[in-house]
Structure formats: structure tokens, C-alpha cells
């Protein structure tokens, strides 16, 4: 176990010097989380828009289910993906287990309900506000969805950033399906857990500093988007 003060100094040095292992882990984390966020937005925004503008039997039950899935335990998602991608699973022939692709799948499944639920609420509120105008223009459902997505773009960007923040901080699901393999599937959260258990606090703290910086950056962007949305609303 390293002295805490010494570990902090070494952590700052690793970040400042751009340590190769550190950069590799950070870049993989960003690639996995950004890809999962993009996929989640493609699916989640569409589902959210459909739920916002469509009325059908069982709609409320679907909304309740989506909201419940926002709290889905990450380890359960990881386990389900593991069972499907393992050699005995239905998708085992793809050979995706313990790869970044498996981690992307797990994160996508984890944050898609979040994007769907939040975007549905945003778009449904906006749809209620514009409902009479849409009826007067006799717009099709597709045209309504496109109009809502465009008008709510700033709020939906905030939703996407919330999904990314959830993905980048994930550890349970990705360690199950990724295996935390050095130079292959080791991301920031899994590396922090491993290095801490080994007593290597320098690298763990360095990764923690980067993760906190990313979280801070996401919050700054979210606030910037909200201010832009407010200015846009009163323009």
C-alpha cells in the first residue's frame, strides 16, 4: 500500500505526463461509452417519440415498464448479456464475449431505457403544448415526430449527456462481459477497481481524476445546453 500523499503526487504526474497505459484506458472508455450512447439515442429517442405522440392500448403499462427499467441493476444487464454471448448462449457463435463490442452492447441496454423515458417526458410535454397547431396543419405522425425532435433538440441533447454520464461511470455490467482484460477491455471504472484492490493507488487516483474531469465537463456542457435552450425559447 502506497503512502496517500505519494500516491496523489504520482497520480498527478501520470496525468500530466500523458502515461501510455492511462491514455489507452481513457480512450477505450470514451469509445465504448460514446458508441453506446449514440446507439441508445438512435433507439431511445425514436421509442420516446412514439410513446409521446401515439395512443394505444397498454401504452401506460409500457411507460411504467420503461420507467422501471431505468433502475435496472447493471450486474443483471451484464449477466443477461453474458448468458447470451457465452459459448452456450444463442449468440455464442459470434465470439463477442470479453470484447469491447460486448461492453457496448451491455451499456446500450443499460442506458436505452433512460434515454427513452426522459425523452418521452420531454416530447410528450411539448406535444401537449403544440397539439392544436399540429391538428390545424393536418400533419402526419412522422411529421409531428420530426417537428418535436427538432424543437426539443436542446433538451434531448441534455438527455443524451445524461445517458453518457451513466455509461462512462458504469462498472458492474462491463466487468462481467468485458473481463477487465489488460490492453483489450480495461476501462476506467474497472481499472480503478482492480488497481485499488492491488494497492496501486497512483493509477487508480489518476484514472479517478480523469473520470471526475469528464463528469465535470459533462455537467458544464449540460448547463451550457440549458442556457442555450432558455435563450432560444425567449428569442
From TrEMBL:
NCBIfam families: ABC_perm1 (NF038017). The keyword rRNA-binding does not apply. It comes from the Bacteria. InterPro entries: ABC_perm_TupB-like, MetI-like, MetI-like_sf. Residues 26-222 form the ABC transmembrane type-1 domain. It comes from Rhodovulum iodosum. Gene3D superfamilies: MetI-like. This is Tungstate transport system permease protein. PROSITE patterns: ABC_TM1. Keywords: Membrane, Transmembrane, Transmembrane helix, Transport. The chain crosses the membrane at residues 32-54, 61-85, 97-118, 156-181, 201-222. It is a multi-pass membrane protein. Belongs to the binding-protein-dependent transport system permease family. It is found in: Cell membrane. Its main location: membrane.
